[in-house]
Design goal:
heterodimer, A: 270 residues, mainly alpha, MetI-like fold, 2 domains, 12 helices, 80% helix, flat, B: 266 residues, 11 helices, 0% strand, globular, transmembrane helix (chain A), transmembrane (chain A), PhnE/PtxC (chain A), MetI-like_sf (chain A), MetI-like (chain A)
């Protein structure tokens, strides 16, 4: 007489399986709710093929026929540059106000930290919509948006960098009678400068992508050109602009990598 | 000798002169191109503050209309992250030198690098041109956007895993799928979770922008209220967006702490 022994899977395995099933069902429901069918990308792929057919060959003639294209490329680059520069400088100054080892008053620190976190929470879309109303559409509103976004994402990083400097040199010159500003100037700034410049180059890299996106919402630059070309269905122009954007982004990335390597010596983003 | 004398000599600062001058020239040129003037900034800030005050009391009656779009945006970001993570794991496997062969690896690396240089918003614009408005192009572009970042990070992680494990599995006769499933995946799971959560934060922000372009959700409400000049309603949408982003950030932080994978990014 033989008994059938049912081997139950282990408790841990069952737990994992349950979590997996629940999340799978949740994702399925979300897909149904949003009316999204991943397979549609393949079954309806002929739309993409038609679009690509319409896009080739890209119309590179518009680059020199339409003078505003060259200007808009320059505008996008300038937007990213100014946004990074001013945003970086303001973030740099705010970081000293928020770091424990440079700002003795807790109230100032907390206010700065809260201000920076609020900037970080507000998405770029909201900022650009407000600035378009405040200064009118155009690349200046894009610059201001990038300044705000850069402060939001980098002030906290710089604060942490300042707090992580070695205390020894600062204490040494403080003990021989240096003022707080002198400690910052001769001990802290030399230590954080390489990291600051490397992060700023990284910010430029990020901001060039953001600048392209902001153009669509009235921030000017090449994003605006792209939106215009798309809305009048000039897909050959769209393709030309997309290739230019890709080249621009790759060039900026390579340049920023190269400069970072030169400044830091070993190419590590510390 | 006075110590201070040497510290302030011109010689020490000479190497900064040329970079500084070029920086000033480039800044002036960029300001000219962008039409950035101090006057414009001053009037703009005053106008902006006045505008914010004008928006001030949010229209709370619109709040319940905002909940569904907010949910849509969050689900959009979530689905984009889920499918994007699956895609990037596949791409990372193809791009890792210890799993795939040389040709596949180089092709995958080039594809990942190329993808990284196309901003998600441009992918979305092209997909909307192909598929029309709706959540589908939004989810696809978010998923594709993941490949560039997660694909590269995960490929580097996979290349760093313990090779002894793979060799021992190979010696026992495991095939490629078994090696990947039992040898590689369990080792990269902590990093995978951490990166995916980080990407979810990015995708939530992106989904707001994508909504305004045509993927639906809270971004659409925001853009629509702004263009219809219903500023009190727009203010409500702004608050909802900020709460949404804040919530995701806290959640992602807590989850990362729970899985004890903190510190990989962030």
């Amino acid at each position: 007489m033989s008994t059938i022994e049912i081997i139950m899977p282990s408790k841990r395995y069952r737990q994992k399986a349950t979590i997996f099933m629940v999340s799978a069902i949740f994702i399925l429901l979300a897909c149904i709710y949003l009316n999204f069918n991943p397979l549609m990308f393949f079954t309806e792929f002929h739309f993409v093929r038609d679009l690509l057919g319409e896009m080739f060959m890209p119309n590179y003639q518009m680059l020199y026929e339409n003078t505003s294209t060259g200007l808009s490329i320059l505008q996008t680059l300038s937007m990213a540059f100014l946004g990074t520069l001013y945003g970086g400088i303001i973030a740099f100054l705010l970081a000293f106000l928020a770091a424990t080892n440079t700002m003795p008053y807790k109230a100032v620190r907390v206010i700065t930290q809260v201000f920076v976190s609020v900037l970080r929470m507000v998405p770029a879309l909201v900022v650009v919509l407000i600035f378009v109303i405040a200064v009118g559409p155009g690349s200046f509103s894009g610059v201001l948006t990038l300044v705000v976004v850069t402060i939001g994402s980098f002030a906290k990083l710089f604060t942490e960098t300042i707090e992580n400097v070695e205390a020894g040199p600062g204490e040494a010159i403080f003990s021989v009678g240096a003022s707080r500003l002198q400690v910052i100037r001769y001990s802290i700034i030399p230590q954080i400068m390489p990291s600051f410049i490397a992060n700023l180059l990284y910010a430029f890299d990020v901001n060039i992508r953001a600048a392209i996106g902001l153009g669509i919402f009235g921030g000017g630059g090449i994003g605006f050109q792209l939106q215009m070309a798309k809305s009048v269905l000039h897909y050959k122009d769209v393709m030309a602009l997309v290739t230019i954007i890709v080249v621009l982004v790759i060039l900026v990335e390579k340049l920023s990598d190269y400069l970072r390597m030169k400044i830091l010596g070993d190419g590590k983003l510390s | 000798m006075i110590i201070g004398q040497n510290t302030y000599s011109f010689k020490r600062y000479r190497k900064f002169v040329l970079p500084l001058i070029s920086l000033i020239i480039v800044t002036a040129g960029a300001s000219f191109v962008c039409d950035a003037t101090l006057f414009k900034l001053r009037t703009g800030i005053l106008k902006g503050l006045a505008f914010l005050r004008f928006m001030a009391p949010p229209d709370w009656t619109a709040f319940k209309d905002m909940l569904e779009p907010a949910l849509q945006s969050m689900l959009l970001a979530l689905l984009g992250t889920v499918f994007g993570t699956i895609l990037s794991v596949i791409f990372a496997m193809l791009a890792a030198s210890n799993i795939s062969n040389k040709w596949v690896r180089n092709t995958a690396r080039v594809l990942i690098a190329l993808e990284r240089s196309v901003p998600e918003i441009i992918i979305l614009l092209l997909l909307i041109a192909a598929f029309g408005l709706g959540a589908t192009p939004g989810i696809i572009s978010l998923s594709l956007g993941c490949i560039g970042m997660l694909g590269k990070l995960l490929a580097d992680i996979i290349e760093e895993i313990d090779p002894v494990l793979i060799e021992s599995m190979e010696s026992l006769g495991a095939n490629k799928m078994q090696i990947i499933w039992f040898g590689v995946i369990p080792q990269i799971i902590p990093n995978l979770i951490s990166y995916a959560l980080f990407r979810l934060e990015i995708n939530i922000r992106l989904s707001v922008i994508m909504g305004a372009i045509g993927a639906g959700g809270i971004g659409y409400e925001l853009d629509y209220s702004f263009s219809m000049l219903q500023y009190h309603r727009a203010f409500t949408a702004m608050i909802v967006v900020i709460v949404m982003i804040f919530g995701t950030e806290r959640l992602s932080y807590l989850l990362r702490k729970k899985f004890k994978v903190e510190g990989a990014l962030q």
